[in-house]
Amino acid sequence: MSVLAKHIARLIKETGPMPVSHFMALALGHPKHGYYMTRDPLGAAGDFTTAPEISQMFGELIGLWIAETWIAQGSPSKIVLAELGPGRGTLMADALRALRAVPGLLPALEIHFVETSPVLAAIQKQNVPNATWHDRFDTLPEGPLYLIANEFFDALPIRQFVRSKQGWCERYVMLTEDSTEDEPRFEPAIMPVPQASNDILAAGQRNAPIGSLAEVSPASAAFAEDIAHRIARHGGAALIIDYGHAKSAAGETLQALRAHEFVNVFENPGEADLTAHVDFEALAVAAKAGGVEAYGPIEQGTFLRALGIGERAERLKTNATTDQARDIDSAEQRLTSREEMGSLFKVLALTPKGAPAPAGFEV
Ligand code: SAH
């Protein structure tokens, strides 16, 4: 049994049942035993694969998006290029390779990573040696901010509420009856007392039928608003890519993934990746409250095609062997087709009010 499970069991025993959000935050981010603190979860040998790990085209196209957005805002001479949760640093390395072709951009930028995992930060350092690392967003330097977040928001804690006859009641995690000190076991339970106010839920969730479950991520909204404040103040743009839904709605999406298989969310905390689908409407609402323009979300397939993934694949194939050409085609397919990542994954862009619509989002 994991050290973290025992730690959580002790916490629950001493302080009572904990909200799902607290359980999720500990499972992923406990400073010593959290899921991300102890491993590199990415790739075939890990628990899941992400778009930048599928193909270099993903990061390269995002690099060109940053370049276009930078030029559209008058090519400011000093910018902060930041990434939240950069994984292995693959996206940024690919983006920088594409950026090099853009006159004046490379010398203008400083690279900043927001990352809490020491294991992943060490890998990032190999791939992007000249970055500066932060474990919080607020220590990023001031200045025009160009920010990327791919599969970051799905890892932020969510709160869950279930609608009873009395109202929306929060879901907590407690110990099962047969839980022991050596073999702690957890299960969810609904608090019998409803929230005093439904303000925490989005309008699209509040009227769901009795028995519905709704998820909200105040941590995600806070990030979106902080990013927006920076961009409103200094200029720049943000590109948020993740799996999720365009409109706030009820429904349970919290899931646990281990070795590319779904497992029980409440079993073995710290050993499986816990994620929830991102509520893009909630992110856009929070960002607008922070003072910026929000574009989208649009589907990842639509976005990548608009940025020219088809042409990029053709170019790469001109110097490729038959096997490599097949891999390039299959990567393009995985990233863009509706049956794979093309539709479930969505893209939201934030820009200062009055700035031109960013590439891929023009109507
Ligand atoms: N963007 C990468 C990795 C996605 S996995 C890719 O697309 O491949 C999620 C990333 O977010 C990991 O790097 C993880 O360590 C980081 N992370 C998760 N929660 C975080 C938090 N609260 N603050 C900073 N980084 C976090």
Structural description of this entry:
The chain is an alpha/beta fold and 363 residues long. 37% of the residues lie in helices and 23% in strands. It contains 14 helices and 16 strands. The strands form 3 sheets. Strands 2, 3, 4, 5, 10, 14, 15 and 16 form an 8-stranded mixed β-sheet that branches. Helix 7 links the parallel strand 3 and strand 4 (132-134). Helix 4 packs across helix 5, helix 9 crosses helix 10 and helix 12 runs antiparallel to helix 13. The longest helix has 17 residues, at 56-72. The protein is globular, with a radius of gyration of 21 Å. S-adenosyl-L-homocysteine binds next to helix 2 and helix 3.
Short description:
The protein has 363 residues and is α/β, with parallel strands linked by helices. It is built from 14 helices and 16 strands.
Report the CATH C-level class: Alpha Beta
User: What's the β-strand tally?
Assistant: 16
CATH architecture term: 3-Layer(aba) Sandwich
How many helices does DSSP assign? Answer: 14
Query: Can you write the helix and strand succession as a string?
Result: HEHHHEHHEHEEEEEHEHEEEEEHEHHHHE
Helix content: 25-40%
Structural class: alpha/beta
Q: Strand share of the residues?
A: 15-25%
In the CATH scheme, what's the topology name?
A: Rossmann fold
Uncertain runs? none
Intertermini distance? 53 Å
Major sheet: size, sense and barrel closure? Answer: 8 strands, mixed
The overall pLDDT average reads: 96
Instruction: Name the CATH superfamily assignment.
Output: Vaccinia Virus protein VP39
Mind telling me the C-alpha Rg?
A: 21 Å
Shape assignment: globular
Bound molecules: S-adenosyl-L-homocysteine
Number of domains: 1
